């Protein structure tokens, strides 16, 4: 493996960590409704666990209400139960073949809990990025030991990987600040 491959590999893994954080932050509920909060809920569809978006049309009715319209009439009760049993604290109600999911406004206390959760997610992402940096540096040390590169090349590559790490940590901090601001606005 060359120095360029080690750097490229580290950058790709760090990108995946940031993408994973973005996906996790999208699940954090703010005061407004958005269809993404139902993405991780699974329903039993003919014996196999399936995402709600695969068995129903999920749209927004207004700023605080999500509409779920199952493609099959018999899925209404199954989807309603799955949403109610999820850890989101939502209380869906069905009107005919449409399920309305109102998102209650967040209390100040709940908002602060959400900010703590966001910070925890961010810290986990930073740890993941730093672990990737450590693995890349170990790969570089191994290359020096195997005489695949010089110590000067290793030092320059370590500096580059540190700059890469700093850039991704900065990106994570920016995402966290935006999400905290979004959660705390009423």
TrEMBL record:
It is found in: Cytoplasm. Keywords: Cytoplasm, Protein biosynthesis. It comes from the Bacteria. CDD domains: RRF. InterPro entries: Ribosome_recyc_fac, Ribosome_recyc_fac_dom, RRF_sf. Its main location: cytoplasm. Residues 21-184 form the Ribosome recycling factor domain. One of its GO terms (cellular component) is cytosol. One of its GO terms (biological process) is cytoplasmic translational termination. GO terms for molecular function: ribosomal large subunit binding. Belongs to the RRF family. Responsible for the release of ribosomes from messenger RNA at the termination of protein biosynthesis. May increase the efficiency of translation by recycling ribosomes from one round of translation to another. This is Ribosome-recycling factor. The gene is frr.
